[in-house]
């Protein structure tokens, strides 16, 4: 099942996040695994902007996996990945976890992911 909350926010301003979009675009081997629920207020407020950032970075759909969970946090991959809070975004490279955004940080999901990827891997050439 697809998360409707991951549909890109049409009002999101890619120009305000140019460095983030460039970073997400540069890492063309990352897989984004997103757990959330359309019923969840945190997901409804955060995931549309993340979806817009992935869209602006032209991340192909086959590299974005989304998993809907119910109010008890039951759903695909929850046990395997230790999902307790949503939204949770796990970023993987070559099947290995690179970073994880869990529910809230002091920056938007896309910024968090881009900064972590760049810190861990440096910028691709």
Automatic annotation (TrEMBL):
InterPro entries from the UniProt entry: Thioredoxin-like_sf, Thioredoxin_domain
All copies of domain Thioredoxin, residue ranges: 37-105
One Pfam family of this chain: Thioredoxin
Protein name: Thioredoxin domain-containing protein
Organism whose genome encodes this protein: Halovenus rubra
Source lineage: Archaea, Methanobacteriati, Methanobacteriota, Stenosarchaea group, Halobacteria
């Amino acid at each position: 099942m697809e998360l409707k909350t991951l549909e890109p926010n049409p009002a999101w301003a890619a120009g305000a996040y140019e460095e983030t979009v460039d970073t997400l675009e540069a890492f063309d081997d990352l897989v984004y695994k997103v757990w959330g629920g359309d019923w969840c207020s945190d997901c409804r407020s955060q995931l549309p902007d993340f979806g817009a950032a992935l869209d602006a970075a032209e991340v192909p759909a086959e590299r974005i996996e989304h998993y809907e969970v119910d109010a008890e946090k039951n759903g695909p991959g929850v046990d395997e990945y230790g999902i307790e809070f949503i939204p949770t975004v796990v970023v993987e490279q070559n099947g290995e976890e690179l970073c994880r955004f869990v529910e809230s940080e002091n920056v938007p999901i896309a910024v968090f992911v881009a900064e972590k990827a760049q810190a861990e891997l440096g910028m691709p050439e």
